[in-house]
C-alpha cells in the first residue's frame, strides 16, 4: 500500500519568492545626455519667465504718470504685440459708434452747467480781442453756451490769454462733444518737454515736468503726439535730436522767442538757428483752412495704421489760426474726419492730430488764486481721465505747456 502523495500549496501570485512570480521590470534610466538637455530646457524656461516678469514689473514701476492699464498695453506693444493691440482697438472702436442722443450733463464742463467763469461776448480775433464764435450745427439743439468762448487767465493788461468753448462737430452723432482752447500767441510762451520714456527713453533736461519756476505763470498744459516709434516723424529740442525730423510731416515748431506754430516740415518750416523745438506727428489733417483730402482712406498710412482713422475714440489736435494764434481741440468718440472738421470749425487753418484715446488726452487751463499764492488747473473736458495737474510731476510722455509772457 502506497502512501498518498504530498500536495504542496499553490504559490501566491504576488509571492516574490515564488518561482512562478515574474521578475520586476527593469527601470529605464535616462541617459546622462538626455538628463542634461532636460535641465537646460527647464533652465531656459525659468529664465524666460523671470525675464518677462522682470520686464513687466519694470514697466509697471517706471517713473512717470501712467495707469497700470496703460503701462500694460504699452508693454505688450513694445514686446511684439503692437499689431495685436491695433487690431483689437480697430475692432472695438469702429464697432461702437456714438449715439445721436443729446450729451449728458456729465460730458460737459462745469461752466456749461452755469457754475464756472463768466461767458464773454465772442468777436473776431483782433488786437486784444478773442476768437470768433463757433456756429451751432444747423437744425441741432444747441448746448448751453455752445460756441461762445469763456475767458480764462488774463495778461498784465487784463486781456484774456486763453478762451475755451464746447460745440457739437458731428451732425450724425449729437452725443459727440468737442472742446476748443484758443491761446493768444502774443501773450504766451510755448515750451516742449521730453518725458521719461518719450521720445527715446533717455534723460533730457526738464525732469519730464513743468519747471517749478514756471508754475505761477502757467496758462495751459496739454498732451503731445503719438509715441515716436509709432510715427515716421521726429523730435528735436534745444539742439538735441530724439528722432530724425522728416520732410512732409505735420510739425509743431517753437522758435527762440517762444512762439509756436503748426505746419508741414520742409514746406512751412526748415531747420535754422531760430528753431528751438520740433514735435512731429503724422501728416497735416487741416491745410489751407480745410480738412485734407483722403482722411477716410488713410492711404499709405499717412495717419497711422489701417482703419485707425475710422475709430470712434477720444482724439486731440493742435493748429493755428490765420492770425497765428494757437488752438487745441479735444473731443469724445470722434473719427479722424470729425476731428479735422472740428478743427476747421474752431478757426484752424493748419492743424495736426495729437494723441488719441481718453487716457492719453490731457488739457488744463490754469488760473491763480485771488492771493496769487496757488494755481488751480481745470480740465478742458471732464471725460479726460488723467489729473488736471498731471504735468507737475514727471510724466512718461512728452508734452507742451504755455506761460504768460
TrEMBL record:
<protein>
    <recommendedName>
        <fullName>Phosphodiester glycosidase domain-containing protein</fullName>
    </recommendedName>
</protein>
<feature type="compositionally biased region" description="Pro residues">
    <location>
        <begin position="10"/>
        <end position="24"/>
    </location>
</feature>
<feature type="region of interest" description="Disordered">
    <location>
        <begin position="1"/>
        <end position="33"/>
    </location>
</feature>
<feature type="transmembrane region" description="Helical">
    <location>
        <begin position="37"/>
        <end position="57"/>
    </location>
</feature>
<keyword id="KW-1133">Transmembrane helix</keyword>
<keyword id="KW-0812">Transmembrane</keyword>
<keyword id="KW-0472">Membrane</keyword>
